[in-house]
Every structure is written in structure tokens, then in C-alpha cells.
Amino acid sequence: MIQNPKRYTITAALPYTNGPIHIGHLAGVYVPSDIYSRYLRLQGRDVLFVCGSDEHGVAISMKAKKEGITPQEVIDKYDGIIRKSFIDFGISFDNYSRTSAKIHHDTAQGFFKKLYDNGDFIEQVTEQLYDAKADQFLADRFVTGTCPKCGNEEAYGDQCEKCGSTLNATDLINPKSTITGETPIMKSTKHWFLPLDRYEDFLKEWILDGHKGDWKPNVYGQVKSWIDGGLEPRAVTRDLDWGIDVPVAGAEGKKLYVWFDAPIGYISATKEWAAREGKEWEPYWKDQDTKLVHFIGKDNIVFHCIIFPAMLKAEGSYILPDNVPANEFLNLEGNKLSTSKNWAVWLHEYLEEFPGQQDVLRYALTSNAPETKDNDFTWKDFQARNNNELVAIYGNFINRVVVLTNKYYNGIVPTPNELSEVDEATLTELKAYPAVISSSVERYRFREALGELMNVARLGNKYLADEEPWKVIKDNPERVQTQMYVALQIAAALSSLCEPFLPFTAIKLSRILKIESPLNWNTITETSDLLPAGHQIGEAELLFAKIEDEEIQKQIDKLEATKSANIAENKKAEPQKEAIQFDDFAKMDLRVGTIIEAEKMPKANKLLVLKVDTGIDVRTIVSGIAESFKPEDIVGKRVTVLVNLAPRALRGVESQGMILMSTNAEGKLVFINPDTDGVMNGETIN
């Protein structure tokens, strides 16, 4: 670990521009990296926080093919949505770039060329999967098949999303092309490989020995597993029609593999920032006094802890990451987030549907962050964290302090009198919180840090509840001056301490308290006079609004609609039964009927006893639909009845026919009934 670095370079994983940002991305990467960057800036540190759109992934080409547009149209569309979402959500990048930018193409090609000229690559002709019908080699994501490690039949050519294993497309069992559905053939092609096996000793010394005590167990464990399994050369080029050209002779039609060019995007984003700001870029990547930290999700651990460091080591002039605090995955309502299946809470939609409530989502995601294991986001938990914590604890304290200050002193901070032991103890505890929160943030325990921030609000609530200034004011107004002065110091501290976690709240609270610039964390620790006597504060405003059940139900209903749409899209029809002759069909007597009575069968959960007017007669039919329909809801329902089915006794009741049913996309029973008015009971169906 670097002690007291001169500067920090903080990177956040480049999002693929094949779809918008969702809460899984936020919880895994962007909220924690933003908390860390904002915290360091409040400490007065030299911070560079960079990111950008990853626009060369195969996912881009797949999206373009699916939508019938060009890859350029795809990346322009989603780069715009992602960029605006980050700005509106308050992610404080110093630069957000694009890998389609010329500066990135030049930087990535220059990086490749240096390693090529140094002889760091292996040039090799290999057999790759080829779709003869589409007349093209298949990139990893254009191949699906059975995972050789867990048996998942829908694994991609680069990774199994079920077990998390990193794969090569040729590892898949029964591979299929996602372009044509054909089984690919093997065909020879020339590519360049980074010989990772050459860097095993370096990686063992740097990570397994050097970072055993300070890297997160989930990160360290995955890296150790890879190294212990033995590293192999990995291709850095691909046969693609979209991406960065390989800048050497004999590589016509080949592109840099996206995992090679994407992390170089951090460097090109830094160059772009430095050129715009009139600064030097190299100290942020080549000075040993710079602390480099990568924020990523767990699916990117291997790339950022093994492959990219090997690239940097091969190049020779770059520093290595001091830490890679990768998070695990966030699930949604019990199911894995999926861009392709639309199973997500999209950031741009959230910002439209919950205007002005960016910090509520930041709070919910940080409180439930998947820092060491996969966690689950639910809308009910989101509502509870807002209503029971932000509103009831944080907002309640601030509101009481501001309302009472305006009521008793016209919004002017009162002059304190002699401090009691409780006052002294409270202010002493307050002074300790910056160091406590710092300790958690410096160890990348942002959930823990947020909990300590809320403890500051709890400290304020407890102080007011114990001291009860609204009662003391009648007999001892001098004492209330001190009480309110102490409470206002806690409120002032919160305006600064919450800035990394709840930046919009920090701005709002500072405006209410009329604090013109954020308080330094050291100031909070060193003095109790954060809001001096005589300072004028503003009127009370609610920091947080209660979220009602109706708003949450809308979101749950939206997800249920998505689930139904996915089921409908993926539902496969039952295979055709054995062929029959027309005479077999003609034996069935199908009639239009109407249910005129319905009641539950005693002591039977699934059965309803129906009286059905078939036009021929009124007969009893016992039907196993009680779990899907209430008796009173189906009286008067038009139905299709098989009337010549041999009678059968069910629980002592003779059933004289069968009602035709099917299931919808959600698996619920539905009646097969005539859709034309004027069709009489008893009409035959043939």
C-alpha cells in the first residue's frame, strides 16, 4: 500500500454502450467510486476520477444486428443516455471519455505497437470458430453453448454467467452461432497473444505476497485461483468488423480485442483531461507517488488484476494499481439483473420517476452494497430505508433543529452558556466521527462508513430527545441556548460528512444552514464552533419526502410486466401430438355454453362445482380451477364445453363434461371462449 500519496488516479469500469446504466452498475462500481473520489477531494487531495463509454465490445455489434442499425448509431445513442444519467445522478467524473475517440484509438494502437516492437506478443495461427453461413469468424459473444464446468446450456463463448467461469469459445459443448443458429466449424486464422504465463512469478510476488493483507478476500481469492490454475497466452486481437485496427503489417481486417483496448481507455481519458485542463498526464500514471485504484464489478477482476497489470508490466513505464476493490453482484427482486431481458431498474427511468431523489437511491444502494457477497435490491427495502432512516432519522433531526432555531431565535445561532457534561460528551463524540468514517472509507467499506454517518444523525436525535429543549424553554431559556447551539453543530457537521454519500442532500442542507463552502473534515475534528453564534440560518425545508405505497407498487407492477413479457417471448409451444384422422376429431362434440352457477367443492382446494347451460341442457361439471378463479367471478362466463365426454364421479359428484382452458404468458389459466356476440348456447364448434 502507498502511504501518503501525492495524487490519486481513480478509475471506474467503462460501461458498455449497448444499453443504459442500471442499479447493478451503480452499486457495483459507480456509487462506491464516487464516494471515494468525493471523500478524497474533501480531504484536499489531488484526485483524478476517470471513466468513459466502452464502444468496441461485441455486445455493440450484437445490439446493432438486433436493431438493424449501425454500431455507430448504437454507441451514439447509449453514450448520450449514459453520459446524461451520470451527470443527473451526480457522479463526479473529472473526465468521461469514449473509446471511439481518436485519442483513444491512437493511445491503444501505440500501446500495442510498443509491445509488438519489444517482442512481447506471440504470433500464432489457431483454429477458431467460424460461421460458414454468415461467412465470418465468431467473436466470443456470438457463440453460445453448454458450459463445460457447470452444464449451463446458455453460456457465452467468453464467460458462463451462471457459474462465473471465464471461458474460450472453443471450450463450449455443442456451440451455436447466435447470428444464424448454425453449428460453427473450425477455421485457421492468425492472431497475436499476450503470454500471461511469462508473468506468473511477477503476479505471485505482486499480488499473492504483496497484497494478501489489504485486498478484498473476494478479489484476492479469484486472482489466486487463476494463478494457481496456471496462466496461458491470451489473444489480444480478433477477427471483427468493429473496433480498433491492429496497427501492424499482415493484420488487415483484424481488430484489437476489447479487453485489451478498454482498460487503456483509462489512460486515454487521462490524456484527454490533461489536454483540456492544461496539465501533464504522465504523473497520474507513471509517478510512484500516485495511488491507482480500479473500481470494478467481480466479472472484471481477472482483466484488472491479471491481464491489464501484465500489459502495464510489459510496457514498463506505468505504475500498478494499489487496490482493486471489486464488488459482487446486485440482484433485483430475487433475480439476476439482465440488460437483454430488461430485468433492471434503469437509472435514466428512475431519475424521471423519482425526480429530486438521487440521494435516496445512492443511500439504498450503499446501505445494501454487495461488497463481500451478492445482495438483493427490492423496492420494499428501498421504501423502508427512505421512510425509516432518511426521513425518520436524518431528516427528522435536521427539521427539528431548524424549526426550533427559527421559532426561538429567528434563525440566529444562539450564544451558548456553560456546557454540561452531556454537552461536552456529545461534542467530543461528534469530533471523533470524521476519523471513524475516514477509516471505513480508506478501507473501501462504504456501507460501514454510511452507517457511521447515520450514527451522527442518531447522535443529534438522541441529544434532542434527552434534553427536550421544547420543555426546558419555559423555565430555563438560557439552558436552551446551549442545547440548540450543540444541536446546530451536529447539523453543520452533517452537511459536510454526508457530501461523499449524499451530495444533493449536502447542497440542500448547506443552503438551509447558509454554509457557503463545505466544512473541512479536520475543522469538524478540531473545533466545536462550526456554526458560530450570531450566524443566520434559513427556513426549514424537508430534506427527504416519504415514499408512499402507491409509488412502490407502480415499480413492482412494471417489473411484473417485464417478467410476463420475458415469459411470453421465451415460451415454447408444446410439440405436436401424434396425428389423428378427421373421424377422430369429429367424435368430439364441442358446444358453446354459459356458467350459470359456481361453488367450491367442500374439502377440496382445487375443485369448483359448476352448473353450465350447454343449450342442450343444464349440467354439472366439476373443474379444477378453484385456485385460479373465485366462484362469483365466473358466473355468466361464456365457455367452450366438451359435452360428450363420458361422465366421471369426482368426490361423489358426477361431472358431465369438460371446459376448455389454456394458460397465458404468466402461466395462469384462461378460458377458451367464443369472441363473437350473438353465438347462442348449444352452437356446435367444428
Automatic annotation (TrEMBL):
Subunit structure, interactors included: Homodimer.
Motif ('HIGH' region): 15-25
Protein's cellular compartments: Cytoplasm
Single Gene Ontology MF annotation: methionine-tRNA ligase activity
Keyword Aminoacyl-tRNA synthetase: yes
Cofactor annotation comment: Binds 1 zinc ion per subunit.
Species assigned in the record: Flavobacterium frigidarium
Coiled coil: none
Pfam families: Anticodon_3, tRNA-synt_1g, tRNA_bind
Keywords in alphabetical order: Aminoacyl-tRNA synthetase, ATP-binding, Cytoplasm, Ligase, Metal-binding, Nucleotide-binding, Protein biosynthesis, RNA-binding, tRNA-binding, Zinc
Function: Is required not only for elongation of protein synthesis but also for the initiation of all mRNA translation through initiator tRNA(fMet) aminoacylation.
Residues reported to bind ATP: 339
Domain of life (superkingdom): Bacteria
Motif ('KMSKS' region): 336-340
Chief location: cytoplasm
Amino-acid positions noted as binding Zn(2+) in the UniProt annotation, renumbered to this chain: 147, 150, 160, 163
Annotated ranges, domain TRNA-binding: 584-686
SUPFAM superfamilies tied to this protein: Anticodon-binding domain of a subclass of class I aminoacyl-tRNA synthetases, Methionyl-tRNA synthetase (MetRS), Zn-domain, Nucleic acid-binding proteins, Nucleotidylyl transferase
Family as reported in the entry's similarity comment: Belongs to the class-I aminoacyl-tRNA synthetase family. MetG type 1 subfamily.
Name used for this protein in its record: Methionine--tRNA ligase
Assigned EC number: 6.1.1.10
Cofactor(s) needed for function: Zn(2+)
InterPro entries noted in UniProt: aa-tRNA-synth_I_CS, Anticodon_Met, Met-tRNA-synth_bsu_C, Met-tRNA_ligase_1, Met-tRNA_synth, Methionyl/Leucyl_tRNA_Synth, MetRS_core, MetRS_Zn
Reaction catalyzed: tRNA(Met) + L-methionine + ATP = L-methionyl-tRNA(Met) + AMP + diphosphate
PROSITE patterns on file: AA_TRNA_LIGASE_I, TRBD
